[in-house]
Fold this protein.
Amino acid sequence: MLFRDYVGDRFPKKATVGGNLEIVLRPLEPRDQSALLDFFRAVPETDRLFLADDVTDSKLIEAWCRKLDLDTVFPLMALAGDRILGNATLHRSKGGWMSHVGHVRVVVHPEFRGRGLARALLGELIELATDIGLDKLDAEFMSGQEQQMRAFEKIGFVRVAELPDHVLDRRNEAHNLIIMAYDLKGETFAVD
């Protein structure tokens, strides 16, 4: 199954988080370029250190919005009006030995953290991943992202591996790479 097969039926979707914050969940669209750049520029530099890309680069954001391939990367936005409050992506390989595994990333606007946005975004991606037949999801973190890892643990992700000094932040400082996983088939992970 393909992501795009579910877009028209599923989105946009309204939700309420944090008691009274009304949001709309929908995939990224080319018209979101300016709002996405504003969103990432509002993320504190200390948080952006842990992101793989320079998300404040307008050319990068333009390329993401112009070259959408929803079957490889499914970018889900949480919006209030035209303002992006959260961004989550589900990445998948179309073939090969990891084609049954999706990779997720989530970023929430600093003003709206702790209100259930990450849970709403991840919950939607978990449903989508299940519907298209994926077996597992994984997420990668750097040591120092304990708050983010706790949020994923509350949803059901478990830590399955830690590789010492395996990744560099945007300042080229080494960190442990922590891999967390979620089994979409309901099996438990054995962590030694």
Notes: The chain has a mean pLDDT of 91. The helical segments are 4-10, 33-42, 45-48, 58-66, 117-131, 146-155. The two ends are 34 Å apart (CA to CA).
